[in-house]
Amino acid sequence: MHFHDDALFPENQDKLVITCAPYGPEWEPDDFPEDLPLTIEQHVQQAVDCYEAGATVLHIHVRELDGKGSKRLSKFNELLVGLREAVPDMILQVGGSISFAPEGEGADAKWLSDDTRHMLAELDPKPDQVTIAINTSQMNIVELMTDDDIAGTSFQRPELYDTYREMTVPAGPAWVEEHLRRLTANGIQPHFQLSSIPQLETVERLIRRGKYLGPLNLTWVGIGGGFDGPNPYNIMNFIQRVPDGACLTLETLMRSVLPVNAMAIAFGLHTRCGNEDTLWGRKGEKMSSADQVRQLVRIADELGRGVADGKEARDIYRIGEQYSSVDETLAKLGYAPNRKPGQVGFTHHA
């Protein structure tokens, strides 16, 4: 991304799009009962509260009544119906990192299959976005967690802690290409969740080879444990490699969430918060997802940067757009064109 001399002036920046992830699938309800929903009605109310606070993108997971994260497509469909009615202007973004199980006999044995994971493209009503990981990687979400972060939570149980420490995200090349094909065929926009520059480079290659033709919405996920850590040098190196036509959100975890989001607001980028990323405000003080959104709205206001409403967020994300060719996609995103046969030197758009 290129920063002109006046790039930090808020009047020259897009309005801020705030993503909220208020369903914290890694936590158990007792970890923060005031903010972790259990029933569908509570899930919908969380969305309403976050939208009224200023969030316009809702990152979605859903729980069963026993408190465990649901793998049932029907449960997600039920929630999507309620959300479409309650928060029609929000961008509904289903978290693709969760695996889905078909219902019925033998479901538990099938939940890791690639075909089952592709069923995200069949959700009804369909979401606006599904997040997608690129390149199989370690996702040790506890590597950066401190004793204070997990104090009094289920993560103090060694067996749960070890489960998350050893977690990986399967996202091999064949699966990624097929998943992108199915999502775009059904009019669902992929939102790329990227750990580092190598994954961004893979996305660029997918575009250059015609495997994805559309707007480029990215989240840099700085959570350590196989991903970048929340180091400002990591952030700026990643930003430098992102093309100007992309839309970039910054994400991290625990008490790094607020300072990283503050940087995102100042840089003209976009933010993500909510109990999936952190339970904490000030040290030792829990903070609800909606209050985290309100905090970002206040910071944006202090900096003079407007916050996008639902329609504005859809325009910024280019929801519903797809492109007809590799050349068009590269031009729209701000990537240099592919080299033509016999062409020498650096390529550029005329």
From TrEMBL:
This is Uncharacterized protein (DUF849 family). The keyword Glycoprotein does not apply. Keywords: Metal-binding, Transferase, Zinc. One of its GO terms (molecular function) is 3-keto-5-aminohexanoate cleavage activity. InterPro entries: Aldolase_TIM (IPR013785), BKACE (IPR008567). Pfam families: BKACE. Its cofactor is Zn(2+). It comes from Nocardia bhagyanarayanae.
